[in-house]
From TrEMBL:
Residues 1-31 form the signal peptide. The keyword Lyase does not apply. This is EF-hand domain-containing protein. Gene3D superfamilies: EF-hand (1.10.238.10). It comes from Azospirillum argentinense.
Length: 141
């Protein structure tokens, strides 16, 4: 897969996951202000940081992304078809391959890449700063 397409896919998956997490996150009326995005970013980070130690490990990241996978996989056949994702058709096709489906291994490979790209100091943890930077990259692409 071309590097550019791959990057686009990683970002789209990350964004999809973030949108879903955000949608699952109850927002209070008081939070619906200019700082709503910052508050939501912080909330998403807290959701991913299962053990609340202030950083998101690869395991925490993967577990939560797999939860997203199961939510997206509406017919529970452990594969994502184009209509189950929010991906552009060409991006979907490039990762799904000949079978036209994204299986869990293909999905985890992408999650792995997204994590490694976000982990800019290579300590195998996403701290708050790295995570927020990832969210901003995804939003501003
Ligand atoms: Ca943690
Ligand atoms: Ca499916
Ligand atoms: Ca790090």
């Amino acid at each position: 897969m071309a590097a550019k397409v791959r990057m686009a896919f990683i970002l789209t998956v990350a964004l999809t996951a973030i949108v879903i997490l955000a949608a699952l996150t109850p927002m209070t009326a008081a939070a619906a202000t200019a700082s709503v995005e910052n508050a939501r970013d912080a909330r998403i980070f807290e959701l991913l940081d299962d053990d609340q130690n202030g950083s998101v490990s690869m395991m925490e990241f993967k577990n939560n992304q797999m939860l997203v996978f199961y939510i997206l996989d509406r017919n529970k056949d452990l594969a994502l078809t184009a209509d189950e994702t929010f991906l552009p058709a060409d991006v979907f096709a490039s990762i799904a391959g000949a079978d036209g489906k994204i299986d869990t291994l293909e999905f985890l490979e992408i999650v792995d890449s997204a994590f490694k790209q976000a982990d800019t100091n290579h300590d195998e943890l996403l701290d708050r700063q790295e995570f927020i930077a990832l969210l901003h990259r995804v939003r501003n692409r």
